[in-house]
Amino acid sequence: MLSIHTIRHMRLQPGALLRAVLSGMALVMAQAVVSQTPLGLNPTQVGLNDTSAHRISDEIWQATGFGNTFMVITDQGNVIIDTSLPATAPRHKQLLQAVSDAPVRYIVLTHAHGDHTGGVQLWREEGTEIIAHSEHEEFMHYQTRLAGMFALRNAAQFPDLPRPTGNAAQAAQSNPGNYEARIQPTILFDRDYAFELGGLTFEILHTPGETYDHLSVWIPELKAVFVGDNFYGSFPNIYTLRGTKPRWALDYVNSLNKVLALQPDIMIPSHGDAIHGNAMINQAVSKYRDAILHVHDQTVAGMNQGKDVYTLMQEITLPDDLNIGEEYGAISWTVRGIYEGYMGWFDGNPANMYATPPAAVYADLVALGGGADKVAELSQQYLEGGDAVRAMHMADVALTADPVNVPALQARLAALQQLLTDSANSNEAGWLRHGINETRARLNQP
Fold this sequence. Notes:
This protein is an alpha/beta fold. It contains 16 helices and 14 strands. It has helices spanning 14-22, 89-97, 114-117, 120-123, 135-145, 147-157, 166-173, 249-261, 278-304, 309-315, 331-343, 362-368, 372-384, 388-401, 406-422, 426-442; strands spanning 5-7, 54-55, 60-63, 69-74, 77-83, 104-108, 129-133, 187-189, 192-197, 200-206, 215-219, 224-228, 266-269, 275-276. The protein starts with a strand and ends with a helix.
């Protein structure tokens, strides 16, 4: 069995250290203008029809999926960077080994999300070293600790992903304990780590952003950087609807600056396609970084002015020159994520200090308003006026008083369907479909 090595503040040669420290943040999921495989409304379908791996360079190959798998080929064996989901890892391995079936000397995990770690055991061979940042251990415990909650949330947000069955599903619904995660890496590092293989140098840098354990891999001989999930073809999920620990916007900004300072010629994300050319990388990453910083700074300014989170969610937008799209993350979710990441859940209203929720008085309001049918009529009026969100809120008020009220359920269903029709965001669409299915079930509709 391989031993765990914790490398603390490893010293590199000055030039390599500068490049390493600057290579940070997990950048590349490809800007919409350059990505050939955008997430789209159903990211689980990306790459399913591929019959071969994609060549990024003579040494670097990609198997595309919900999470990409990369193989770096050297004359002393191969390095695998990220391993995708358990369900897609076998196909990725088949496609990549058709290019090279040399021994796998290292596996590097850009972070501990399941679409990056799912194929580790499939790729692992005798003597394979598995590298991750030291924060990987706590993040794995966190995900295992809340496995039941994440199983429910992921099923709603990504309904097409394979689900655990049998004992695995049962285990996810139980209390797994606080420190029961399986820790697979054999090498954990704190700041940076490096190794050489077959004439290539692999400088591994801590670049927090999407997760605290996030890392980037810089290969100076190829001027290529692997940036994991810190860069997408859309505004990122600085808060994701399935739930996560706070993601710090300034971590993204600092890590993106590290990547830019490396001056890479190839930037390779774990979702989407590689970006080639330093000028194109600088343009895409600078715009992405500045968009995040703009939303962060505007949110902080509003907080310091005493504005509430909903006001800021409505007010803050990106200027045209920083508009990078909201097909994945959304500005309003990011504003709330930053606000509550800094300040927590309490909004300053004394009524919200207590365990009794606002919905506890909805039934009384419905009675004052003439009953659930009358409130459902108001919901329908909002919908006809083009305000599907208020229509959904009003339907939910009616359903608090009468959970099986058909007009309210019908109004809610119509509001959700309208929002789905208008949506161009993959995560939003997942939750809207979940709400539609749930409402149809309550109406006993197929």
